[in-house]
Specification:
With 294 residues, the chain is an alpha+beta fold. Helices cover 35% and strands 28% of the residues. The strands form 2 sheets. Strands 1, 2, 3, 4, 5, 6 and 7 form a 7-stranded antiparallel sheet that branches.
Length: 294
C-alpha cells in the first residue's frame, strides 16, 4: 500500500474514532449494480485480508470507496438497435421514424444493461487525525471529488482542499529562477513551463534540466513553472504541480523488510508510508509559506 498520487485535503472537524467511523460507513456499503443500474458505489474493505471498512494502524486510518460500473460499449447498443430497426422496417413496411429510433435505442440499452458485465475499482483515502490530513490516492480530481462527496455524506465530517500562502506556481518558478528551496528539498530534472497568456503554449523538460539562459528566457517571455520534479530529504521523489497535487511519488533508498504474509506486508507498507508522509506534507507546506486556511 503506497500512494503514488496525492489529492490533499484538511480535516476541518474533530475526527471520529475508527469504531464510530466503521459504524457510519457501514450504512453505505457497496451493494453492486442491480437490474438496470449502470453504476453503484459504496464503502468496501481497504485492507489486504481485512474485513473491516476501516483499516487502522495506530492512529492512522485507511478507507476505500468501491465503484462498480457495467461495461456496455455504445457500439454494442447501436448494433442491437440496428437489428431491431430492421425488424421494425420489415414489419411495418417503412423505416422507423426519428422518435421510433430513439425508443429502439433506449430499449436496446435497457435490454443489454440488464445482463452486462460489471467491473469494480477502489479509491483509497488515508486519514491522519493527529496531523489533520485527509489524502485521496489518485491523479484524477473527479474521482477524488466522488470519494470526498461520499465521505461527507456518510460521516458528516468537514473537509477542505489544501491551499498555501505562496502559490505553487510562484514558488516553483522562483526556485528554478535562482531562489534556493529549503535545504530538505532538491530540484530534479523534470519541469514544465507554460505561458501565462496562452495556456496551450508550454515547454517540457524530461530528464533534462534547463540551463539558466533558457529559464531566464522563459520567464521573460511570460512563462511560469506548472510542474516540477523534486526530492525530499533523499527519501521520496515526486512531481509538484500547480494545483498542489503530488504525483509519481517514489520511495527511495529506504530499507523495507520483507514480510511473511500479504497482510503483514500491507501493514508494514502502510506504517512506512504514513510515517514518511506525515513528515513530508507539513514540511512542503512550510516551503510554500504555510497553509493559507489555518
Amino acid at each position: 500500500m503506497w500512494f503514488k498520487n496525492l489529492q490533499i485535503y484538511r480535516l476541518t472537524d474533530e475526527v471520529i474514532i475508527p469504531d464510530e467511523l466503521k459504524e457510519r460507513l457501514a450504512k453505505q456499503t457497496l451493494q453492486g449494480c442491480l437490474g438496470l443500474e449502470a453504476q453503484s458505489k459504496g464503502w468496501v474493505s481497504p485492507g489486504a485480508e481485512e474485513a473491516d471498512l476501516v483499516y487502522s494502524y495506530g492512529q492512522q486510518m485507511l478507507i476505500s470507496l468501491g465503484i462498480e460500473k457495467k461495461l456496455l460499449p455504445v457500439s454494442v447498443v447501436n448494433q442491437l438497435a440496428k437489428v431491431r430497426a430492421q425488424e421494425m422496417e420489415s414489419h411495418q413496411g417503412y423505416p422507423p421514424s426519428r422518435k421510433q429510433m430513439k425508443d429502439i435505442k433506449e430499449a436496446a440499452y435497457r435490454e443489454l444493461l440488464s445482463r452486462a458485465f460489471a467491473v469494480q475499482q477502489r479509491n483509497h483515502a488515508w486519514i491522519d487525525p493527529v496531523g489533520g490530513w485527509f489524502v485521496v490516492e489518485g491523479a484524477s480530481a473527479a474521482k477524488a471529488d466522488t470519494l470526498i462527496e461520499a465521505f461527507i455524506k456518510s460521516t458528516g465530517c468537514g473537509l477542505q482542499r489544501i491551499s498555501t500562502t505562496m502559490a505553487p506556481v510562484s514558488a516553483m518558478t522562483a526556485w528554478l529562477s535562482g531562489d534556493d528551496p529549503p535545504s530538505i528539498f532538491s530540484i530534479d530534472s523534470d519541469s514544465i513551463f507554460r505561458s501565462r497568456e496562452d495556456k496551450k503554449v508550454s515547454v517540457s523538460y524530461v530528464q533534462q534540466s534547463p540551463d539558466p539562459q533558457e529559464i531566464t528566457r522563459h520567464v521573460q517571455t511570460g512563462k511560469e513553472v506548472i510542474r516540477l520534479a523534486m526530492t525530499w530529504r533523499d527519501k521520496i521523489s515526486f512531481i509538484l504541480d500547480e494545483n498542489l497535487q503530488l504525483k509519481r511519488l517514489t520511495l527511495l533508498d529506504i530499507d523495507r523488510e520483507p514480510a511473511e504474509t500479504a497482510e503483514e506486508q500491507f501493514s508494514s507498507d502502510f506504517f512506512l508510508m504514513t510515517g514518511e508522509l506525515r513528515q513530508l506534507l507539513p514540511e512542503l507546506m512550510d516551503a510554500l509559506g504555510g497553509m493559507a486556511n489555518e
